[in-house]
Amino acid sequence: MRKNKIQKISDAIVRLKNVHSFGVIGDPGCDGLGTYNMKVYAGALEESAKDDITLVIGDLVPAGTKKYYNEIIEITNVIAENDVYVLRGNHDTGAYEDYFGRHNYAILTEQFAVIVLDNAMRTFEEEGLLLLSEVLALEEVKQAVVTFHIPVPNHFIQNSVSRDEYKRLKKAYEPWKEKVKYLLCGHVHSCFVDEVDGIPLICTGGGGAMIEDVSEGIRACDINHHMVHFFTQSGRLAYEFKDLQEGCYPREGKDSILKERLEDAVKGEMMAHLKYLMFADRAKRRGFDRIANLFEALADSEYRHARNFYSVLERPKAFKEAIEGFIPTEQFEYEKLYKMMAAYAKEQQKPLTKQAYEGAATAEKVHTKLLKEAVNLDGFARQEIYVCPICGYVMTEEEINKKERCPVCGGPQREYKVFVAEA
């Protein structure tokens, strides 16, 4: 039977031998435990297996129910290769103690201490602050990482504990400040490094939740999912951020039986997505808006199912490199594949198939042009994109100002579907 990797803490001080490094994962379950997010967490656990232990610094689950705790523990115990310690986040409420034990504790190794403090409710517990002082006062402790979920006041974000709360923390460590090498937190679905009271503050929340904009200088498009390695270097604690590509954790997609079934599931769900959207269109044209709304919702649900199945298989490039990777497929389709299939359909006297391939090829050419523009993320300025709902041809604002009808199928401009980007 596989040993449980999740550690339930009963003692305030946990002493570990032969531990020289630890991996840190932030906020894996804050946005929910969907397969898409959990694949990132699984990749973080695999990466963290390079360290002696793993620390998850809060928000394992979206809400503190037994259902979610059981689910995240099952995933963790199956995938993790080292012992996993947990820090309570603001989402980790309810039955937390039943699964993970103490809110405040310290891990003492031969080379460093990791002091885990609960500030999930935006206040440091007195028990934790007393423990912090007690551990730092130990002669054997030469260097320590003080870790908590919600950041202390810093230069990057307002989403932090109050300055009065930080003063309480500072008062607890002040007599032994030289031992505190890092302050470590999560909560923010991004990452940054700052300095507080002369101590590096490391914020990491990229272990599963969707990456968010923090400021103009820290945008979601510039940050990948990630975890952090802490290790000793020449006797001193050091750290390194490690990006997790969205194609991380390929283990399950390598199972030949699962791979085939997952591919079938993706096809089935996407076919259902398409069928429901088409029926929604038919219902809308007949004036049954509520029926159309139902089928649009069902179509979106089927897409989410397909995304979950596909995420187990997918090995995409990093976000900034991904757009360029879509171009060759689009180019191949309009330059070769669709032309060849249209010619075959013509030869076989199948005019509707020929028409579908020719119309798609024309649209794919426009797709390629727009994707080449979008490679320059910051320079891409097109605010509105139009799609003909009859044949799928894509147009820009300049084109629709010149044409009242779709140049491919003749569909009227009044029916074009417009996609408007937020300013």
How would you describe this structure to a colleague?
- Helix content is 40%, strand content 17%.
- With 423 residues, the chain is of the alpha/beta class.
- Helix 6 runs antiparallel to helix 7.
Biggest sheet, strands in spatial order? 1-5-6-7-8-10-9
Q: For the terminal residues, how far apart are their CA atoms? A: 55 Å
Which percent bin holds the helix content? Answer: 40-55%
Provide the residue-averaged pLDDT: 91
Notable traits:
5-stranded mixed beta sheet, 7-stranded mixed beta sheet, 423 residues, 10 helices, alpha/beta
List the helices and strands and how they pair.
Blueprint lengths: L12 E3 L5 E5 L9 H14 L4 E4 L9 H14 L3 E4 L9 H5 L4 E4 L4 E4 L9 H12 L6 E4 L15 H11 L6 E6 L5 E6 L2 E6 L21 E8 L2 E8 L12 H30 L3 H25 L5 H29 L3 H24 L9 E4 L6 E3 H6 L14 E4 L3
Parallel strand pairs: 1-5, 2-3, 3-4, 6-7, 7-8, 8-10
Antiparallel strand pairs: 2-11, 5-6, 9-10, 11-12, 13-14, 13-15
